[in-house]
Amino acid sequence: MPSPSYAVPSKPDPQDDKSIETIRAELDGLYRAAEVATEAYNTANEKAAAQEKRLTSLRKDLARTEGRVNDLHDLAGAAARTQYRGGNLASTGIQLLLGDHPDQALDEASQARQALRSLVNVSETQKSVRAEVSRQTDAASKKLRELKSTRADKAAAKKKIEAKIAEAEQIEAGLQTQQTRKLAQLEKQDTEKAKSRWTGPDAGGGGTKATGAAAKAVDFAMAQIGKPYVWGAVGPSSYDCSGLTSTAWAAAGHPIPRTSQAQWQGLTRVALASARPGDLIIYFGDATHVGMYIGGGQIVHAPRPGRTVTIAPAASMPILGVVRPGA
Question: What is the pLDDT of residues 47-102, one digit of tens each?
């Protein structure tokens, strides 16, 4: 996933020759790149984990199928020998091993020759099934190797971004008291502007209250306020943006996809004007940030490294759309 462009600081300090607006833009760019990298890594990790589960299941299916083919092969030989000696096929235990089609096979097997033919047909069918499961297992193994490679690439990119975050933290730590105050003022001004930009429901404040599972999700998310943002974290002591929303809805009894991009792709989309508490607001064109709407034009979210879970104006970032879990 391409990361947004941002200015890379040559040295964290001094900052005296830069305007506070320049410093703010520099910090925003670094933290935004970090969030993109986080979501890309989380997505790659989720896909690899799901593929590992699929491969494990396919390997179990393959082992069962191979065992069945071997059993049928042995039974066919025993049945042929029994028929040659003029014996009764029922004594071979064919009823037990024709588990997929017992009624059909035994109903049609009124004659010994018919029973043997049915047995051979089932055996051949099982061989075809084994070949198909084997093909799927090989394909799944190849796909898993590709996904692990992608995950490794995303992890490497994430590491590079972590170094940039360290620079951003040094920049903030190196700000003079007056600069820190100005930065806080800028953020406060942006917050007020964001409130005025909100065009969704409850624009005048107040708003409807969450009910049912949505109320449980909102209550859970609100209870996490003050806990730090940590890349890839899903609680209980820290969260990233989608870790907070996915854990909150799981706690409400409705598990949802882990990442903000998967939430945007997999959940029911609703109009912004219809947003209600518990809905998730997805941000930026690449769906790399998410917050939970709590009413009154506000969200609860995990903002970025160095910050904690907090309440913010719902219009404080570019809105991509709204999704509703459990719909």
Answer: 888 888 888 888 888 888 878 777 777 776 666 666 555 555 444 455 445 455 54
Give the active site residues: 241, 289, 301
Are the C-beta atoms of 282 and 245 separated by less than 8 Å?
Answer: no
pTM listed for this prediction: 0.62
Q: List phi, psi (to 5°) of 122.
A: -65, -40
